[in-house]
Amino acid sequence: MTTAAPTFTPRRTGGIRAVCLDVDDTLVDYSTSSRAALVAMAGNADAWTLWQRITDEHCARLLAGELEYESMRNIRTRAFFAALGEELDQDEATRRELRRQEVLASGWRLFPDVVPCLEWLRATGLPVAAVSNASGRHQRAKIAMLGLAQYFDTVLIAGEVGAAKPDRVIFDTACADLGVDVEDAVHVGDRLHADAIGARDAGLKGVWLNREGPREGALPTGVAAISSLSELPELLVCELAATSA
Fold it and tell me: Is the keyword Transcription regulation assigned to this protein (predicted)?
């Protein structure tokens, strides 16, 4: 069911004039599909933390221009298995990586709160950007396959921009594409430091989507938290009301 549109018109100065959204594990349940893909490739998900670390290292090298996108995945797969004590030749690395990609893509799913939130945002007339730390073309394919493209006015992918969150360059680029100043935009994502704190430090309003629920301790100054995208409309309405007062 689509959430009803609110009865406000965004101000042209001040307040929230645009919304940026992370993609993986904010809109798309990426971790579940990625863990399943790792099991298909490696036989189990016990090395999930290792896989994430090696992925982060190789994506950083990609952004730095040290690797080409077409070869990065195989190089990463060989590095992963080498860390587990297994040396793969190029053909075997390709075979395993293709299997991983097949399982990964077949498991992509939107969280249930995503479409109602995006429909609500569209009804407000606020421009919306996807801001992703993904490294390549597969992210645009994923966005299209899951029917998300229709909701975005612009899509920023780290591998294309040459900067990844929390680097302010990707936030600045998103706001420029949307035609708003950074202080008039909000960014929502599942990673506290890369998304919420990174956005705050870049001048946006940072919102941490913590689907695991409340945590102990205070939130960092200038960061809001929600546990579901169903809470975002109320948060934005309250922000608009506060800045319009």
Answer: no
- What is the pTM for the complete model shown? 0.88
Q: Where are the domains of the chain?
A: 18-29+109-244, 31-106
User: Which residue intervals of the chain are DSSP H helices?
Assistant: 30-42, 48-63, 69-83, 90-106, 114-124, 138-145, 158-161, 168-178, 198-201, 232-244
Residue showing tokens 């689907």: 211
Q: Which residues contact 68 (CB under 8 A, 6 or more apart)?
A: 62
Per residue of the chain (245 residues), what is the pLDDT tens digit?
333 433 333 333 347 999 999 999 999 999 999 999 999 999 988 999 999 999 999 988 988 889 988 899 999 999 999 999 999 999 999 999 999 999 999 999 999 999 999 999 999 999 999 999 987 788 999 999 999 999 999 999 998 999 999 999 999 999 999 999 999 999 999 999 999 999 999 999 999 999 987 777 788 999 999 999 999 999 998 865 454 44
Assigned CATH topology for domain 18-29+109-244:
Rossmann fold (3.40.50)
- Taken in order 29, 151, 22, 7, the sign of the CA dihedral is negative
What phi, psi does 66 have (nearest 5°)?
-80, -20
- Tell me how far CA of residue 6 lies from CA of 117, 237, 244, in angstroms: 12, 8, 15
CA separation for the pair 120, 2 (Å, rounded): 7
* Residue 206 bridge partners (DSSP): 187, 223
